[in-house]
Amino acid sequence: MGDTSSIKVRFAPSPTGYLHVGGARTALFNWLYARKTGGVFLLRIEDTDRARHVGGAAEKVLDDLRWLGIDWDEGYGVGGPSGPYRQSERLDIYREYAGRLLATGRAYYAFETPEELEAMREQAQVEKRTLWYSRPEQTPTDPAEAERARAEGNPVVVRFKAGAEDVTVRDEVFGHIIVGAGEQEDFVILKNDGYPTYHLANVVDDALMGVTLIMRGQEFLGQTWRQKLLREALDLPEPAYAHLSLILDMRGRKLSKREGDVEVRSFREAGYLPEALMNFIALLGWNPGGDKEKMSREELIESFSLDRLTRVNAKFDRDKLLAFNTEAAAGADEARLTRAFRDYLTVNPEDPIPAEDDGLLKTLVKANKGFRTFRDISDKSGVLFVPDGDFEYDDKAVKKVLAAGGGAGFAMLADIRRELAEAEWNASALAGLFERVCSEKGVGMGKAAQPVRVAVAGRAVSPGIVDTLLILGREKALARIDRCLEMRG
Fold this sequence. Notes:
The chain is mainly α. The protein has 19 helices and twelve strands. The chain folds into four domains: 8-86 and 247-308, 3-Layer(aba) Sandwich (Rossmann fold), CATH 3.40.50; 90-244, Rossmann fold, CATH 3.40.50; 332-385; 389-488, Arc Repressor Mutant, subunit A. The protein has helices at residues 21-37, 57-68, 91-103, 114-126, 143-151, 198-208, 224-234, 264-269, 274-282, 297-303, 318-331, 334-346, 358-367, 374-381, 395-422, 427-441, 445-457, 465-472, 474-485, and strands spanning 8-11, 40-43, 74-75, 107-110, 157-160, 167-171, 175-179, 187-190, 213-217, 240-244, 247-248, 314-315. The strands form five sheets. Strands 1-2-3 form a three-stranded parallel β-sheet. It has a three-stranded antiparallel β-sheet with strand order 4-5-8. The protein has a two-stranded antiparallel ribbon with strand order 6-7. Strand 2 (40-43), helix 2 (57-68) and strand 3 form a beta-alpha-beta unit.
């Protein structure tokens, strides 16, 4: 694009659930472009498809965006000069514009029943035609006829008359797209329930809200001709377009919820850092140039440009995302990790680790150094916070570590239990205790630590043994050891 002095972009999600990573990428690219150019980023809620609408989903989407670090300058939740920003609150506006099209003869009322429409589709399949809708001989535009049809119990929609000429759409990514006159058919702009379709609502809103660039997924590219015709018929300004390549899974299929968690919320619940997910998503269909891939928020803004959007479909590589997150966690400071860990626990209320104690969270982050996601911390340390009444032992770990060799592990555990009862409960004293036991018995640290670990954690995995004991505290650790020793029989 040329002049960027008055750029305005938008993200317009449908409230059907949590934010999909494909939607997150669309939001991110629009946000990056607005921040890079000094433009305006607008957020609009598109809730005119009532069959797919989910109550409360808009707030979930907003929460996902904020977690990622994406804010907006105008729109739903923050206000602005072009509201309301929820389409279900703008129905009178869409009906007015549909009325303009009816008045000029560019649209008409249609009364086909679902059965009649299905018959048209079936006939088109038999004749192997892509276009299936046949414009009726009469194309009424008088509202009185529509009212009579409704009174008789017939469905009433408003259809736009497709043009008789080819339509050319210029896209910043895919170049010129030409849709021939023979590939166009009349399409619905107002549904029987009085709500607009995507095409009319978007055209009207983008014009009235001053959107200058529409950046969205490639799946919308084949529909853009409809919106271009609507703009021309309504004498509305034409924005620029940039359609984003598809996101595929590692087997080359379109990323789908059926193939696993692909919502932003699922990665938040799994313990990913939002900055790592943002960095990873930014590289899905955009190439910053050079070899550098790990980028901060500020670096992404500085580097972003439309001319580096790619036509090549992106692959959602979960292993790469995990590597991004592992590196981001290793490079983050203690305060950042503590805040992020608290957020992870907040969205996982079933996790036994208490989220309120920052000191404890810092301890757990340090004790699990090298973790990949916060779920790793929970997997290793959560058992230390399970109430004793719910605490269980892994039978395999007990047999292998404690009962094997004639109960050698139990014997070691009993000896160390006596030492622990008298020891000072601090890192230095406990570390010295284990070193002394290993020296006196001529064994490696594993032979001394593992029996204690299984006794207090119920399994052979936990943070380092000293950290494990400090986190548990003397009373709880000794109580669990005593309970374990009772299993000797």
